[in-house]
């Protein structure tokens, strides 16, 4: 039996058809295995070194020099939790970009997550970022060593432009790279410039200032709230934002703020037209800087159409003055602002020699409607003040020991908080320039341009490569056929 089996195997081995066919099968199997191994290897190399070419029309997944410089200087581990669905083109682009970040630095890692499968993420970051910060479509950029995290969602990925024909905002550009790189900087830096926000007197809360704080955070400012009634300490190296208090300071709180000023602490005051002017201790603090508000709402005269927006004289477009913080903005043409409902300030007749006071924003021809008389909110009444009024002031107070305390006051908060205003005026540069002038430190606002969201319309010029390929491929096939079949025409 064994002998027959060996004879059969020998006969099969010497069979010419089998040898040729077996060799072909062997080559085929070997080729398939090599292709599979090459595919796995290529996939691993692409994931590790981000070798995939970006052939998109706007290069949305390509990193620029600024991002590469940030990643080259990174020396702390940063992990990005990608909580994003994979069924949209935008998220495919975002995933490809994240892979490039991970490939460009050994300190950056990325993981795909789901809050359904990993609900711990909701609680892990809720204390530091807020209960609703983590959603089902966001990125969490975290640096465990520094204990910081930043959440990015769709509001951080796009810039918009107003379409006058439709009356809606259209996507104008993608800011994936800018937002992610700034977030990496924010969570990984050793020290961050800090801003303090006073609380405990009915001031604007976190919900009221969410957009403003987001702008400050994107510029790498650490924002924290302080409550003097809870014995929170003030740091004179960090400006204090006092945003529309509704209740007065206590005597001890006023003393603490005066000590803060004498130590060189700076103030950022917001006093809106509906805020009370009867807060004695708070007014005493403001008067130290020559700041005193008018009672009422500033309304532009309709004849001065350049000083208000569209047909709404309540929406003021003030004239920016040349001051220390605003001169760079004016020189760069970033001087357009919009204040929706504002308070004006009085200019003292006499200013002490230890105080410098300058108007930052001025109205055009306007009047102040003191609606407290119960007559009308907007229509001018007899006795209403008329003229040109300051809507924002810049003050510098010098103490006997030579210490200087600076203060900025503005009569409106929508200029910083309203999302439309942020995206259609110089609101953000204005805010960051004021904070920088108080803080004395440059904000981190990386000059990474958005990727164009609109594909150029097809023209004969940009279709030329496609036409060349369409014509050339059949010609090459025909030429190959002639070269191969020509010598065999007589066979």
In a nutshell, what does this entry contain?
With 491 residues, the chain is an alpha+beta fold. It is built from 15 helices and 23 strands. Strands 8-7-9-10-22-21-18-15 form an 8-stranded mixed β-sheet.
Entry keywords:
491 residues, alpha+beta, 8-stranded mixed beta sheet, 15 helices, 23 strands, 4-stranded mixed beta sheet, single chain
Describe the 3D structure:
The structure is a single chain. The protein contains 15 helices and 23 strands. By secondary structure, it is α+β, with helices and mostly antiparallel strands. The strands form 6 sheets. It has an 8-stranded mixed beta sheet with strand order 8-7-9-10-22-21-18-15. It has a 4-stranded mixed beta sheet with strand order 2-1-3-4, with helices on one face. Strand 5 and strand 6 form a beta hairpin. The longest helix has 34 residues. The relative contact order is 0.10. The mean pLDDT is 82.
